[in-house]
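Reply to dn_fold:

You asked what the input looked like. This is it:
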Amino acid sequence: GPPHPMQALLGHSDFSAGSLVSACSSDTDAVDGQQQLVESGSPLFSAIMRSGFVSHLVGCYEATGAKLSQEEVNLWNAFVRADVGLRGSLRVPSEAANQVLQELPLPDDRRQWCMEELRERAFEGEVDFVDILDIFHEERSSSSREWSFRASLQNAVGGLSQLLGGVPDWEAHENPAVKHLSAELRTRCARLPSSRLAAAAAAYQRSLVLTNSWMCERSLKRFLSSLLPADQRR
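and this is what came back:
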């Protein structure tokens, strides 16, 4: 039969915590079964299981951010904050999705265009972070000169604010932002019932996989594009 979930968390089997989360995310019955397992166990067993899910979710959040540029990290953090239920997706149109789009240095009419694009991409009324990330790059490439000016102005204002506030750039953009949101995520996870926590960990693993797949696809497209004659490149 399948190995006991405790083996995954204690590292006594090839059945890793990541595969445990994947198994829980495969269908509703699996997540329900995991909930029953946690709730039927001892408090210590339940605490160990929950700790594994929380660490996995936060690790996936941090690993996703580590692959992104600073602008993309800002977008990712906005997405995570707007994802109140830790579902790894947002409904569109919605105020939550609009909050994320506010991170884009765009006029209101272009943000509305982005929202319409998200509506077209939505599956059952919801979009993943990678959908927003793709639209971010699509919009930037379509108006690269204007975008560059807006982004540069925004960064300059942000840098001046940090300088006046006495906060070194690397501290403001790297460690505190990630650490603060990681700590916030742990607090939010503590409020979730076990079944939702298992599903949330699976959802953020999915975000990590989708983001990495999207980045690989972009790198491959750039490589193939570089092989084309200059007049045929996009």
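Residues 1-25, 145-173 have pLDDT under 50 and may be disordered.
Hope that clears it up.
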